[in-house]
Amino acid sequence: MDMPTRTTDEVILGRLNTALGFLVRLAQIKVYEHFFEECGERGLKPGEFSVLWVILHNPGIRQSVLGQRLMIKRAHMTKLIRSLEDQNLVSRRIPDDDRRAVEITLTPAARTMVEQAGDWFFAYEDSVGSNLTTAERQQLMVLLQKFTGLD
Amino acid sequence: MDMPTRTTDEVILGRLNTALGFLVRLAQIKVYEHFFEECGERGLKPGEFSVLWVILHNPGIRQSVLGQRLMIKRAHMTKLIRSLEDQNLVSRRIPDDDRRAVEITLTPAARTMVEQAGDWFFAYEDSVGSNLTTAERQQLMVLLQKFTGLD
DNA sequence: TGGAGATTGTTTCTTTGTAAACAAATTTTG
DNA sequence: CAAAATTTGTTTACAAAGAAACAATCTCCA
């Protein structure tokens, strides 16, 4: 009998389910979808939060450095920063010693906001991978740190 | 001295570098960039390949099932399939027993092409995470399978 | 010193993917 | 059975992200 595949778990993936790149992509989508179920309408997306968080902990950081660390391309970073500036969350300053660069700082209002947002963001992050044991989560974290070169 | 952050590895990430969601996003970008360095102008992107690969191994699979398994949204799947159809790689058939559904099959030409593409695709996939040991790669694979619910 | 090349950020255009409204077919249920 | 609800795929409008071309500034070296 050669019935066409009708249900998700019948699907034959072959070697695909051993491919790291494929698995990482699936994981990323899952995290993202899970985020919007949980944090739904908080108004602050994961990308935005990570940018603000890093600026909080590195006041005066340059756009280029921020982009390199978070792996956000220049063109996109420009848009992100402008959007944050429009929301009055960050301010830009051209340093005297290099007038091409832009140094980013949080506004005072944003500082308290981001600290607060950190609470629920990391609470959410703790719920990521809740189908793994604590030990597995720890293991996965370490492996991903090494994989991404963050160790 | 409170110098603004100037180089990537000076950047303070705080709790962020222990956040699974953040790490997974970084990993995904890294895989994707690495892919285009390696496989540059092969004309077949990771997403397209995975779709074709799954159709190859599940001939007559329905669009909805394909989308669920690869976590591709309906609206997007429609465009992907149409693009593949325009390239004469897949054909669509409305089954008699459910005239809303669409069953997808590879064209004969695509079958050999995808089998061939599999060779370099999985060769590339083997090079993903080359900064990890073989054991670590295996571990990461198993953890991601569990994480994504593919086990 | 001054010009070639690199760096930094912006702009414009394109690609990729999502959301919401819709139409058609099917299933459920009163 | 017939109306209501669900499923499946498409369309349209939009958001997120990258690529390439560009302008301004800085660096390096002949």
From TrEMBL, chains A, B:
The keyword Transcription regulation applies. Gene3D superfamilies: Winged helix-like DNA-binding domain superfamily/Winged helix DNA-binding domain (1.10.10.10). Residues 17-149 form the HTH marR-type domain. Pfam families: MarR (PF01047). InterPro entries: HTH_MarR-typ, WH-like_DNA-bd_sf, WH_DNA-bd_sf. One of its GO terms (molecular function) is DNA-binding transcription factor activity. The keyword Metal-binding does not apply. Keywords: DNA-binding, Transcription, Transcription regulation. It comes from the Bacteria. This is DNA-binding transcriptional regulator, MarR family. It comes from Xaviernesmea oryzae. The lineage of its organism: Bacteria, Pseudomonadati, Pseudomonadota, Alphaproteobacteria, Hyphomicrobiales.
